[in-house]
Design brief:
The chain is of the alpha+beta class. The chain has a single domain, classed as Beta Barrel (Thrombin, subunit H), CATH 2.40.10. Strands 1, 2, 3, 4, 5, 6, 7, 8 and 17 form a 9-stranded mixed sheet that branches. Strands 9-10-13-16-15-14 form a 6-stranded antiparallel barrel. A two-stranded antiparallel ribbon has the order 11-12.
Length: about 325
């Protein structure tokens, strides 16, 4: 596995049920990541916060995002469950549009070219054994003064040929990935990468001996981590053979994670509500651009009037516009 681009780490945020928990880095919540979809009328992207539905539903009346500031500090962004939209098929995915100012240290995963598609799976023969890595929140070691996402590594164990069921009996379209997911990693992005030198099907006996390029080797977003699979074993007496009575059970993490495919995230982001929001913003930005090309009373030479402020104003109606909060030092 090659070194991970630091920009990938900046795509991640942490999810908490309240500001106090986020400030104290309590053992609650999960992970999320930012995704960008390009707008047709400009070089800008509409950015979305993405996490698991269960991270939102279990948070209570508030969902707080913990994000790094560019100045090296933390900020806490409160949202409400009603701000989020869920996948229509009941998949464990949630998303909301958001605008983060330059005061934040963040990046986003572009749908193009970083989302894995079913076509790429077929064209690149992606399957069991291919390398994966996940970036998320390792509770207890997730950073006190700032978010410090942790990478975990593994392999695809099984393709998404059969769904998994969540605790409510809802089918979840899922890869099985050997990656040792744990509580806190829920909502983490999982990436797949093709080893440059390893033989690829159907030519398993031939080394590739090719140079790296992203369209051929990735990494691509495989999907979103939503569960770690457990087995339950009976508790034994001191002889290590006899089961205790009354019977007790202990949960054993199998090391397997359920990962919902990236194209199912894209389905949510391409829902009618989100598409209409993007079209509305495209129309407003196009209108700004047309007016920017015409002279105004104060600008005889046709000065450019479509500014960063204009763009953010055009997006503000449907997105959470967030400015970093002031630190105690800044307030004085």
């Amino acid at each position: 596995m090659p070194a991970i681009d630091p920009n990938v780490l900046d795509c991640v945020f942490y999810v908490y049920p309240d500001v106090a928990s986020a400030e104290q880095a309590k053992e609650a919540g999960g992970t999320g990541f930012f995704v960008g979809i390009p707008l047709e009328s400009s070089l800008r992207n509409m950015v979305y916060a993405v996490t698991n539905r269960h991270c939102i539903e279990r948070s209570g009346p508030r969902v707080v995002l913990r994000v790094n500031k560019a100045a090296g500090e933390l900020d806490f962004i409160p949202t409400q469950p009603s701000d989020w939209r869920f996948h229509p098929d009941g998949l464990d995915i949630a998303a909301m549009p958001i605008i983060l100012s330059p005061g934040y240290q963040y990046n986003f995963i572009g749908v193009q070219p970083f989302f894995l598609t079913q076509q790429k799976v077929s064209a690149r023969a992606i399957g069991p054994g291919d390398d994966v890595f996940m970036v998320g929140r390792f509770i207890g070691h997730d950073g006190k003064q700032g978010n410090l996402p942790t990478a975990r590594f593994g392999n695809i164990a099984r393709m998404n040929s059969e769904p998994l069921e969540d605790k409510n009996g809802v089918s979840q379209d899922s890869f099985l990935v050997e990656i040792r997911s744990m509580p806190g990693y829920s909502g983490s992005p999982v990436f797949v990468y093709i080893n440059v030198l390893a033989p690829r099907p159907p030519d398993f006996g031939e080394l590739q001996l090719t140079t790296y390029n992203h369209p051929m080797h990735g990494p691509w977003l495989l999907g979103i981590d939503w569960s770690h699979l457990s087995n339950f074993h009976p508790v034994l007496k001191e002889d290590r053979r006899t089961k205790k009575e009354p019977q007790e059970w202990v949960e054993i993490n199998t090391g397997m994670a359920g990962v919902i495919p990236a194209w199912r995230i894209q389905e949510l982001l391409n829902s009618e509500e989100f598409r209409m929001q993007r079209k509305e913003k495209d129309d407003e930005i196009s209108d700004y651009s047309r007016r920017a090309g015409s002279p105004s009373e104060d600008s005889a030479e046709g000065e450019q009037i479509f500014t960063q402020q204009d763009f953010e104003s055009a997006l503000r109606k449907v997105s959470r516009r967030v400015e970093p909060s002031q630190s105690d030092a800044e307030k004085k």
